[in-house]
Amino acid sequence: VAQCAGTGRARSRGFATEAAAQTSTTAAPEGAGGAGVGGLVAAACRTVFSVAVAGATAVVVENTLNDLVLWNICKSHAMPIIDTHPRLQLSLGAPFKSEAWWNSSVTAKGRGNLVSCIFLLDGARASADVQVVMVRKPGATKGVLAAYVPNLFYNLVMPGAYKVVRMEAILPHER
Predict the structure, then answer these.
(1) Considering the chain, what percentage of its residues have pLDDT values greater than 90?
(2) Under 8 Å between Cβ of 113 and 136
(3) How far separated are the first and last CA of the chain, in Å rounded?
(4) pTM over 0.70
(5) According to the model, what pLDDT value does residue 35 have?
(6) Three-state SS sequence of the chain
(7) Residue 66 burial (10 A CB sphere; 0-12, 13-18, 19+)
(8) Is the C-alpha dihedral spanning 66, 171, 79, 162 positive or negative?
């Protein structure tokens, strides 16, 4: 660095430059051992930060995919009942179409054993919010690894492990 600064040249930027090659081969003075340790600490901090960001991203992706799978399970349990319900057909008008999953609300409690899902159902005449509450059947997540395996795995492998305990729709005012 001192050679470039001493000659008055601006240090060019890039991967393989002459200035970078000159400065990388210079040795540090005898008493300046702290600069190497500082570089190691900075590299370790960058690595820890990168691993933390990657871990946080993995957790967010797993939670988002779990919500998508749970929404799909809720909808697959609810739509056969909704399609044949006479009061919904009268109030909303057939055919029915549910809104996209990101416009829904999915809540899982008790290690994923209790799931509540609210989604918007559009009919030909009106729309309604449908809430589905499901409970995972007892014994579906047994084993030593049950505490360590994410719920996403169980929901993908055993989508039929849930039972609907309550389903309700808030209907528009009927005339």
Answers:
(1) 23
(2) yes
(3) 83
(4) no
(5) 58
(6) CHHHHHHCCCCCCCCCCHHHHHHHCCCCCCCCCHHHHHHHHHHHHHHHHHHHHHHHHHHHHHHHHHHHHHHHHHHHHHHHHHHHCHHHHHHHCCCCEECCHHHCEEEEECCCCEEEEEEEEECCCCEEEEEEEEEECCCCCCCHHHHCCCHHHHHHHCHHHEEEEEEEEECCCCC
(7) buried
(8) positive
Two tokens at 166? 């309550």
Comparing 53 with 173, the larger pLDDT belongs to: 53
Residue type at position 19: A
Q: Are 114 and 135 in contact (CB under 8 A)?
A: yes
Joined tokens for residue 106: 């999915």
